[in-house]
Write a structure and sequence with these properties.
Chain lengths: ~300, ~240
Amino acid sequence: MKKSKVFWGYAIIALVLYAVVQTLISFGMVNTHYQNMLITMCINVMLAVSLHLVIGVTGQFSIGHAGFLAVGAYISAICTMKLGMPFSMAILAGAVVAMLAGLLVGIPSLRLRGDYLAIATLGFAEIIRIVFLNIDYVGGAAGMQVTHQSTWTYAFVGTAITILIISNFTNSRHGRACIAIREDEIAADAMGINTTYYKVAAFAVGSFFAGVAGAIYAHNFYIIQPTAFGFLKSFDILILVVLGGLGSLSGAVLAAIFLTFVSTYLQAFPETRMIIYSLVLILVMLYRPTGLLGTKEITDLFKFRKKGGTKV
Amino acid sequence: MLKVNDIDVYYGNIQALKGLSLEVNEGEIVTLIGANGAGKSTLLKTLSGLLKPKRGSIEYLGSAIDGKAAQSIVKAGISHVPEGRRVFANMTVEENLELGAYLRKDREGIKKDMEHVYELFPRLFERHKQLSGTLSGGEQQMLAMGRALMAKPKLILMDEPSMGLAPLMVKNIFNIIEMVNKEGVTVLLVEQNANMALSVAHRAYVLETGKIVLSGSAKELQESDEVKAAYLGGL
């Protein structure tokens, strides 16, 4: 009862947010530049939240998330541009293939731990990029032309579903198992948790939503090129998760929104852009070394207040 | 209840257990004492499925469990309290206990067992909403034991429960081990604190560089000169 109340509360907030922005767009009060920023924001939130599941919840240090973004982007672009499929189907296809890629990468590499896993995932992401670079069917290094089909609606619905599914997963029995793996893998094993299964599952779900983000990304920029999916992109996503606070979903969302704002407004200062961006990162990490929210969620802040109220 | 026949266990190329055999009967407290590096923890890890023996067999309640996955061994009723406690530090005490019952589906039974654990360890109940990383060493040990009990084990494997604890706390922990045993749980206890371990155990084995060198009733070993010289200190 109480849980469903909370759920509907969030659903209403999300709907209102969606409706307000959509009305502003329909009345032409948000120009294409800002529409673009909103869609990029949604893409970054999806990427951050999906990587949060792998790193923040399950504790598997993966730095190859751009590889799955690339798979989603290219597969969905092939679906719409070459096979003439509708956009919504293309998003699903991109996500499913990205998830399969995640399984393919996850099953062998999740035997590795820590730094070794990081290097292996980085390597896999580079392999994916090089493969696309060398396939002429998708344009090779010149990239692939894609029509603009991403709208605020697609981006928002994609983000909402990503957050809904990943937060539900985290709060379920399965999520508990994943957190136990993050906390102590040997103890989790000794409790009878199938650690390999959950690591691969988290990886596959994370890849799926990276694929959704990839599809929306591909249809937002008119062209996709392999260079956009290099390891720097993986690090950009990693930064969102670390900045938000490892283990905090709302932190990842906040960080994604915050950094999209920062980098969009800094486009006006191309010479100093990266310097300021880096300074912002350094300052945040200096003053909030565990990330914006640490391992807490935004909702914990309200809970805390409530608890104090009942005591009095 | 548990029969280990002539097992060899390796870490890569290094052989940690060399043809080790032992037996645990239902209702007993059996202790395994030995110096650092004798292979005590290795044996427990092998029993709970975290390591696989290269040779030999492990029989539990009449069926072979060597080489089985850890989760099916936990399901069969063997629970492992790992060395160094290994509680899930960023989870509350209650969440840790819930994870101990991870493989169980009977909600009523889980609730009852949780109450029972809180009876055994009132300190845990006082702190049930606290993050377990903020507990003291002794409380963490209690939590690790409580967590293992939540799986409703028939056999509990304890790896050095006295490690790093003050003497009074050690006494407390061993009292609880005896209590748990009286409730019908068989205990295989690995210890460095030989004196304490022998005082609660029924039978004991002495392990040296991967082999059993002595075995007998706890009383016998307590009085054996060899054991006194090597593990109890003071002749």
